[in-house]
Design brief:
It is a single chain. This protein is mostly beta strands. The protein has one helix spanning about 1-20, and strands spanning about 20-25, 30-35, 40-50, 55-70, 75-80, 80-85, 90-95, 100-110, 115-125, 130-140, 155, 165-170, 175-180, 185-195, 195-200, 205-210, 220-225. Strands 1-3-8-5-6 form a five-stranded antiparallel sheet, with no helix packed on it. A five-stranded mixed sheet has the order 2-10-9-4-7, with no helix packed on it. The chain has a four-stranded antiparallel sheet with strand order 14-13-16-17, with no helix packed on it.
């Protein structure tokens, strides 16, 4: 009798694994960084183990995001495409061929401000929504304070950007802005007025941080595509 029950559990496990068509290598990722660092991220892989040739569209969304840090923003990258500050419960899609895997990067950019951040991402098959997997990511800084509140003082669009971005200052007037790469190297510095267009065509593709150094004292992630 015990042998039969054991064989039954093995069979059920085999059936269950055959349906694990959308698989993320890790259930949980975390990183703790120096408060002076500009960003922190962790990498994993998402696999499409489907057998149906039409089952190649993967959908994902954030089910949770909590940020306790001034000017912190999140990013989720599937392959070369990065979504900056994805909205909770908003769905995003990408194509992943059968039997292939895609690099998945989860991160926060904190532009040197202490704090903590948490996000939970779920990914599933568009053709078979029951096939899904979840990963949670935590980032914190040493001696992090959780009392800061982020208040937007300017906005930029389009974001992602290819050739240019337009900056809108919430209070009008002018500001001195600087753009840094993900390692904290300054790549552009300019005085701008609300509505100004900034040429970013010469910047390599990637994630950047735009930071004001005047009255606004605010930072925002931008992506160059």
């Amino acid at each position: 009798m015990i042998r039969k029950i054991t064989l039954l559990f093995v069979a059920l496990a085999a059936v269950s694994s055959s349906f694990a068509q959308i698989v993320i290598d890790h259930d949980y990722l975390s990183v703790s960084i120096d408060p002076s660092s500009f960003s922190g991220e962790e990498k994993t892989y998402l696999h499409n183990n489907a057998t149906d040739p039409d089952d190649t569209i993967i959908v994902w969304k954030l089910t949770e995001m909590t940020i306790n840090g001034e000017s912190w923003e999140s990013s989720v990258c599937t392959g070369d495409l990065c979504i900056v500050d994805p909205a909770v419960d908003r769905e995003y899609k990408f194509d992943l061929s059968l039997g292939e895997k895609m690099l998945l990067k989860l991160g926060f950019t904190n532009v040197g401000n202490p704090g903590t951040g948490t996000l939970t991402m779920v990914a599933w098959s568009e053709l078979n929504p029951n096939y899904k997997d979840t990963v949670k990511f935590d980032m914190s800084t040493w001696g992090a304070s959780t009392k800061s509140v982020r208040t937007a003082s300017f906005d930029v669009y389009p974001n992602p950007a290819k050739d240019f971005i337009i900056i809108e200052l919430m209070e009008g007037g002018s500001e001195e802005i600087k753009i840094y790469d993900i390692l904290g190297n300054e790549v552009l510095s300019k005085k701008v007025y609300s509505g100004d267009r900034i040429n970013v065509a010469s910047l390599p593709k990637g994630i950047y941080i735009m930071r004001s150094s005047g009255n606004l004292n605010y930072s925002k992630i931008i992506q160059k595509i």
